[in-house]
Amino acid sequence: xxxxxxxxxxxxxxxxxxxxxxxxxxxxxxxxxxxxxxxxxxxxxxxxxxxxxxxxxxxxxxxxxxxxxxxxxxxxxxxxxxxxxxxxxxxxxxxxxxxxxxxxxxxxxxxxxxxxxxxxxxxxxxxxxxxxxxxxxxxxxxxxxxxxxxxxxxxxxxxxxxxxxxxxxxxxxxxxxxxxxxxxxxxxxxxxxxxxxxxxxxxxxxxxxxxxxxxxxxxxxxxxxxxxxxxxxxxxxxxxxxxxxxxxxxxxxxxxxxxxxxxxxxxxxxxxxxxxxxxxxxxxxxxxxxxxxxxxxxxxxxxxxxxxxxxxxxxxxxxxxxxxxxxxxxxxxxxxxxxxxxxxxxxxxxxxxxxxxxxxxxxxxxxxxxxxxxxxxxxxxxxxxxxxxxxxxxxxxxxxxxxxxxxxxxxxxxxxxxxxxxxxxxxxxxxxxxxxxxxxxxxxxxxxxxx
Length: 451
Ligand SMILES: C[S@@+](CC[C@H](N)C(=O)[O-])C[C@H]1O[C@@H](n2cnc3c(N)ncnc32)[C@H](O)[C@@H]1O
Description:
Layout: E1 7-11, E2 14-15, E3 21-25, E4 28-32, E5 40-48, E6 53-62, H1 75-78, H2 88-107, E7 112-113, E8 128-136, E9 139-145, E10 152-154, H3 163-178, E11 193-200, E12 207-213, H4 221-231, E13 235-242, E14 254-260, E15 264-268, E16 271-275, H5 285-299, E17 306-310, H6 316-321, E18 327-332, H7 335-347, E19 353-357, H8 360-363, E20 374-377, H9 386-395, E21 399-404, H10 407-419, E22 422-430, E23 440-447
């Protein structure tokens, strides 16, 4: 019987999907943050549920050879980089193992899972930062959320964002303080500044800054813009977004461009993209290039195919594939992303791509009678809508390349496709989010030949 507040000597035999060490006390599973497989330690039990418990690491007795000192001062309080105590090669091995296990256990998929593709420098990669603002003891603070809470940690520096992003956060905090513009207090629902969203281009110098406020007006906006753009001449776009709601959703419905235009430019595999402040864009562009090369290899295009890019965002996959295909059809639910996709096609002189705004599960009905050769699908974390997949099956699309940022929903969707006559030939995890337990996987799927 595992008792709360008691101390135990344990050995870690596995890791959870979110990087906690797993040990067993009299057969009862206990999860402990920051513990690594293979280590022995003394732990204290902090919570007991009916079928598992949580413990806290008190002292490591035998350290794993893969343990690494986290370089970030905020590691123990933040929780964003929950694998930073793991050597990078172990992180990659962990992601390959989790992919294989999840596909097997949840999806009943037996396939070849390749080594996870990692980065040469697995830091400073994240091109988008969403920074909450708050107040502590009368001082403005900004940065990261404390683990499992909405308390804000005043960030010194974040090692997965570019250095300039951390600098802009500090600079803007000083500007708001100097101008007496208070942060939003979510407990009592007053104040002004809720979030800053900072986006950096990988191939160009462009940076965009979106200031989200509780109030319809951003006080002293001309001064703020002047200070920001004269200090950082890489800032080409400043947008004010107004979000009056008591919600966890970051952006409100109304935005106004305060400086420049509402986009930054970037380039992936030779195709240029305009990215407006509302549109989804992959957060690790260097890895995105590699991942799209793999997606194109899996699609094996011959310049003659009709392809669908479902959940297309600003069209990054479809436009990367356009020169190897006959026709590209893209769909995304966000209208501004579709407007960006159409503009991106024109900007790159791509004439064989058409983008439609709407839900993938609805829009695919318009294409039901087309002879589609390849489907690229890249849904949000919740995976594909079942009715979307049913239509894909009814259309008898022979090749599917599924890109997923959530291996559990991937396993569920692949299990359905497998039950409908498809087979998963190969999966390659890409490390889009080094230092964190998030996994991105590209899978090659084919309709089985009948008879
Ligand atoms: C993981 S992102 C992929 C975007 C794009 N393929 C890329 O790589 O940049 C998922 C996209 O799905 C879109 N989305 C979410 N639900 C949708 C739905 N029901 N139908 C169509 N698009 C949807 C989001 O707007 C977002 O752009």
